Structures are given as structure tokens and as C-alpha cells.
Amino acid sequence: MVVASRWSLRRDEKERPAGVLETNNDITERKHREEEIRSLNQELLKRSTELEATNKELEALPTPCRMTYVRHFDILSATQRCFIKTPLLY
Q: 50-64: per-residue pLDDT in tens?
């Protein structure tokens, strides 16, 4: 369990210290979510780095090869979209 703790000095009517009030809140769930966000950000950074490297590889290809790759990708994407949107008929 992770706890956030606050301390507050309480004073009497003459402003003399009379006691300390401590408030504790369970922040375990928040800490778990923060760790999950850190992990997702690391994965995003990794994927971004991989995409940058792939883009550099593609940019290094001669223009006709790049166009062929793009056309192939577009055809594949269109085929996948058709397949997904087409209901199965028996």
C-alpha cells in the first residue's frame, strides 16, 4: 500500500501549538496507473523509434521502389478493408 501523508499543526486560542493532525490517503491505485502510463510511454517511444528507422530505410530506396512499396501497401490496405467490411455469405 502506498500512502500520501499530510501533517498539520493545530493551535489553541492563544496560537500555541496544541497538537498535530495527520491525514493519510491510500494512493496505491494512482501509483499503479502512473507506472502503467510510464510503461505505455516507453512502448510508444520504442515504436516511434522503429517507425523512424523504417521511414529512413524507405527514403533511402530509389523512387520506383518506393512507389511500388506504397502501391503494394495501398492495395493490401484496400483488400483488408474490403475483407473486413464484406459480410460472409453462405
A: 999 988 888 887 766
